[in-house]
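Troubleshooting: if your tokenizer reports a length mismatch, compare your output against this known-good record of 158 residues.
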Amino acid sequence: MQYLAEGSQAPDFTLLNQNESSVSLSETLKSHQVLVYFYPKALTPGCTTQACSLRDTKAELLEQHNTVVFGLSPDEPKKLARFQEKHDLNFDLLSDLDHKVADGFGVWGLKKFMGKEYDGIHRISFLVNQQGVVEKVFDKFKTKDHHQVVLDYLNAKA
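Known-good structure output:
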């Protein structure tokens, strides 16, 4: 698996969110940079921890760093809606059912868990600047610390 490197052009995408509305990376980039974070499955413990931490730092991300968050998984919009509602998530969760966007970012690939091998999304995040370029790749973090790793980077560059 080879994911996009820093300095690469991010592939544009339009996906359905939890409300079954279309959300486009290129449209959002007209006014904000975007943290595109990939997670394996809604409503699971690690993904919930990661999402709730981002929820709790949304104001700082948006107001201090002009950063919008998109969470992408291969879940259907209805499941994403349940995830958002259950945890009061305040950012768009996008449905990448056919994992084409995950493929484009290079985060879909072989995984191993409890002795089993399967294809799935690797938990990696990309900060895409307003020019559509991957400015930073976050690939080494624990789910509970993801938000802080992102904020530390943004605060250091501010």
